[in-house]
Amino acid sequence: MKILIVEDEPKAAAYLKRGLEESGFVIDCADNGEDGSHLAQTGSYDLIILDVMLPIRDGWSVLTELRRGGMTTPVLFLTARDAVHDRVKGLELGADDYLVKPFAFSELLARVRTLLRRGPARQATVLAVADLEIDLLRHRATRAGVVLELTPKEFLLLAFLMRRAGDALSRTLIAEQVWDINFESDSNVLDVHLRRLRSKVDDPFEKKLIHTLRGVGYVLEERP
Questions:
Q1: Of 26-35, 54-63, 93-102, 189-198, which gets the smallest average pLDDT?
Q2: Strand partners of residue 146
Q3: Which of 123-132, 153-162, 213-222 has the lowest mean pLDDT?
Q4: What is the distance, to the nearest Å, from the Cα of residue 74 to the centroid of all Cα atoms in its chain?
Q5: Closest-CA residue to 131 (of 204, 191, 217, 195)
Q6: Which CATH architecture has domain 2-118?
Q7: 23 and 68 in contact (C-beta within 8 Å)?
Q8: Average confidence (pLDDT) over 147-164
Q9: Are the C-beta atoms of residues 50 and 62 closer than 8 Å to each other?
Q10: Distance CA 7, CA 207 (A)
Q11: Residue 140 above 80 pLDDT?
């Protein structure tokens, strides 16, 4: 699942990004309100974590614009402003939750997962293809009831393949979506991760689900 963090303090943004990525989320960041608003309206996010005091435009105006435009993506305000009237204002403007700094990351993660469960349904949180299943919120993957021990990057790669099950996915697209990089043809990063993922998802089982499309890329699908 994909989260946008709008936070102007570099250390705080890096801390949030690292922690949420390690928890299995794909993260984009913006360090001012103008860029945050643009990303929120042009990207596809499951949740937005929004600071209040931001350069160029504050979080209040960003949220107001998003809600007036009809956006229903859950928004979690994360701010040092802890006065009751600030929290009330945030909720009245359309925020789904309000967490005051400093905070424990475990609490932030719990609130993120709660918002994703109860928020407007945009995407399923449990994906299944044949006997392969992943729970995006619990960061858990199983095949035929057997828990798969995946690294965070392997989990993200598998989640992307399963979201697009049946689609022919180019190496460039996978690299951009999972690694957030421009793919270089001489890079073997993708091949190495696919090999490792297949060793866990496919090798122990008779039916293979991840297939190579020569000259194109990869596809995850159940075949006869």
A1: 93-102
A2: 143
A3: 123-132
A4: 13
A5: 204
A6: 3-Layer(aba) Sandwich (3.40)
A7: no
A8: 89
A9: yes
A10: 45
A11: yes
Of residues 203 and 186, the one with the higher pLDDT is 203
Give start and end residues of each alpha helix (H) in the chain. Answer: 10-22, 33-42, 59-68, 84-93, 105-118, 152-163, 171-174, 189-201
Instruction: Give pLDDT, residue 121.
Output: 45
The residue behind tokens 């392997």 is 154
Query: What's the half-sphere exposure (Cβ side, CA atoms, 13 Å) at 140?
Result: 8
Whether this prediction's pTM lies above 0.85 is answered by no
Contacts 24+ apart (CB under 8 A), 186-193: 193/153, 193/154, 193/157
Contacts of 6 (CB under 8 A, 6+ apart): 29, 30, 31, 32, 33, 35, 36, 39, 40, 48, 49, 50, 51, 54, 59, 62
| Distance in angstroms (rounded) separating the CA atoms of residues 163 and 177 | 12
Q: For the chain, what are the domain ranges?
A: 2-118, 126-220
Overall fold of domain 126-220 = Arc Repressor Mutant, subunit A (1.10.10)
Q: For the residues 201-223, what does the mean pLDDT come to?
A: 94
